[in-house]
Specification:
Elements lengths: L6 E8 L2 E9 L4 H8 L18 E4 L2 E4 L12 E3 L12 H8 L9 H14 L5 H7 L11 H15 L1
Parallel strand pairs: 1-5
Antiparallel strand pairs: 1-2, 3-4, 3-5
Helix pairs in contact: 2-5
The structure holds FE2/S2 (inorganic) cluster (FES) (2 copies).
One FE2/S2 (inorganic) cluster (FES) binds next to loops.
Length: 162
């Protein structure tokens, strides 16, 4: 996405903390603001066109592609990134399951898949395989063939239900 407009100060809540970022261009994406101005490189930039899901974050609790959200849109709102899912230095059950199931290879798609899986399991704690596939349809992985990703979501669902 090209940049444009004047630089602005962005004030928002990110992962539970009030944050400010200076020098954000109005035409920049939220993804770029997170990665380049807020030191949160977990959300990945793989397409910048809303097609791969690698940049998935929560905006006011709703799953969005951060590359499609203008940086100014989250002003005063709440963003949660993949970094915000871990608590007290411990991986979230979804993150742990991705590691254990071998669902991480190059890892480029992983942050987006983890946020999307987290969202799915919050809405549907016991998803069927078709429901998992549907929920993750917007997240592209070039490496794993998806079986291990499905295993990871099933494992996370079991652990969260226990
Ligand atoms: S980088 Fe946002 S959807 Fe691909
Ligand atoms: S693990 Fe490489 S793109 Fe998914």
């Amino acid at each position: 996405m090209g940049v444009g407009g004047a630089p602005v100060r962005l004030s928002l809540t990110v992962n539970g903390e009030e944050r400010e970022a200076d020098g954000v261009w109005e035409g920049e994406s939220l993804l770029s603001a997170l990665r380049d101005h807020l030191d949160l490189p977990g959300s990945k930039n793989a397409c910048e066109q809303g097609e791969c899901g690698s940049c998935s974050v929560y905006l006011d609790g709703e799953l969005v592609c951060a590359c499609l959200v203008l940086a100014a849109q989250p002003e005063g709102r709440e963003v949660v990134t993949v970094e915000g899912l871990a608590a007290d230095g411990e991986l979230h059950a979804v993150q742990q399951a991705f590691v254990e199931a071998g669902a991480v290879q190059c890892g480029f798609c992983t942050p987006g898949l983890i946020v999307a899986s987290h969202d799915l399991l919050a809405r549907k704690p016991r998803p069927t395989d078709p429901e998992i596939r549907e929920a993750l349809a917007g997240n592209l992985c070039r490496c794993t063939g998806y079986e291990k990703i499905l295993d990871a979501v099933r494992l996370a669902a079991q652990r969260l239900a226990a």
